[in-house]
Amino acid sequence: MNFFKFLFLFLSSFSFAQTDCEFKYQNKIGGNYLFSIYYETDLKTPLNGTCERRYNDNRIFEKRTFKDGKLMEEILNYESGSSKTKVNPTWNTRDSVIASLELFWENGNRKQTNIYYWDKSQRRCEKYTDYHLNGKIRFVNFNAFVRLSEINEYDIKDYPPHTIDYDGYTTLRVPFGLALEYDDAGVLKSKTTHKMILNGGHEHSSREGLYEDYHHNGKLKTRGYYKDGDPDGNWLVYNYLGQKSEEQFYQRNMKVGTWKGWHDNGKVRYEYVYDTLSNYIFHANKKEWNEAGLLVFERYIDRKGLGFEKKWADNGTLIQHLELVNNTKIEGSEKNWYPNGQLKSYLNNLRNVDTTYVSYFQNGKMEEIHLKTKNELDQVISNKKWNEKGILISEVNKKSRPENEFIELYEYWPTGKTKSHIYQLNETRLEVNYFQNGSLKSGARFLNAKLDGKTQHFDSLGTLLLENNYTNNLRNGWCKRFDKTGKLLFAQYYENACPKKMTGELPAKKR
């Protein structure tokens, strides 16, 4: 638009004290746009009259009419001339319809429609219809307004006096009745039934009775029931073709009974049994089948939590078996097999076993083994790992006693030579790394996970390149750097990370 032309019209029964028509929506009492009392800038005098703002060709851009502060009419238009907003209060006490609000997309299609009315109990209610851009209905909801007198003492702070409209209603609206949702093709997506709950906690608890949702082809997808906002009773799920695919049971949002599912070919997909008398009521005993009808998963626990889990490949070969103790595998055992039936791994968490884990490659060679021994004085853990060629690539040895703990870790190159060696006794750790040719690469000492003592770095020919001294992770003492010929490039003495000039000592050099 190029500019606004303001026109103020005096009607026989209306008058404005202001000299222009700028509408200040914030000058009001009431939280709802249609049911507030609007005032002049003095915030005392109710608005009366009609205010217009026009385009330069005299077409209406905005038009609002007020009587005693109440909005009697509102018209908003796009620059193209199409309607944007229409408000048409009736103010007829004998009519159950109070007012209507219509919003439009710029293409002329409806965007939103609100019809306000009195129900049989004289409560102000709203039918709210929202539309897709193409004009198809998006959803239809019914809401009830809540009076200030109906707000409990804990929530009343959220509704200050200036938000209460002239009928005594707050900004709180709660759903009731049937709520419908559609896709942009006009196909029904869902039906939800709400009961009226006059508090702010209605969002989920208001769902009551039948619920349905649908596939894009219009066929039923889910049918179930709510009670006090929770799934309750029998729930059915259907596939895109309309065939039953799942059957579920709830008791006040708790899964109960036998749940079943089916593949599209009609064969059973799963069967879950929920035992409300078990110590693990939220964990079902399960069976699952593939489309060919072969069992691929089974989980069973008794009421005390003892049981198992099994998995099968699609060809029917057992590939996993878990022993469950207290409904977990932490205290049980686990076996895994390759699809050809060959053992892949065995984990044993039972007490007093000496081999806790072992695994194998498909070629039959051992991949990893964990050993554990324990006596009155100490506990020893030894873990080893190999590559597919049978070459040892790492090993860890840990020895624990009440007074100390010793850990030694080795990593190896594929040639079998040592790659790294870590030695730790309580809080002291030594780390040494090697090149593939076996020569020393680096060495460092740590105390409480901080550098402490001398660190050195070498090249693959054994020439010292770097030597630093640390205390508590800070440079402390001489720090030196050399070139590949062994010639000194840099030397600096430090005290607690601060460089010092040492009289009579080797001067610091940089090149």
**Residues in β-strands, percent:** over 45%
Biggest β-sheet description: 41 strands, antiparallel
**How confident is the prediction overall: mean pLDDT?**
89
Using only C-alpha atoms, the radius of gyration works out to 39 Å
- DSSP helix count? 1
Percent of residues in helices: under 10%
SSE diagram, text form:
Layout lengths: L4 E5 L18 E2 L7 E2 L10 E6 L5 E8 L2 E8 L5 E5 L9 E8 L5 E9 L5 E8 L5 E11 L21 E7 L1 E6 L5 E7 L7 H4 L1 E8 L5 E8 L2 E2 L1 E6 L5 E8 L2 E2 L1 E6 L5 E7 L10 E5 L5 E7 L5 E6 L5 E7 L8 E5 L5 E6 L6 E6 L5 E9 L4 E8 L5 E9 L4 E8 L5 E8 L2 E7 L5 E8 L2 E2 L1 E6 L5 E8 L2 E2 L1 E6 L5 E8 L2 E3 L11
Give a nutshell description of this structure.
With 511 residues, this protein is mostly beta strands.
Can you describe what's shown?
This protein is mainly β. It has a domain of 85 residues. It has one helix and 43 strands. It has a 41-stranded antiparallel beta sheet that branches. Strand 2 and strand 3 form a beta hairpin.
Tags for this model:
two-stranded antiparallel ribbon, disordered N terminus, 1 helix, mainly beta, 511 residues, 41-stranded antiparallel sheet
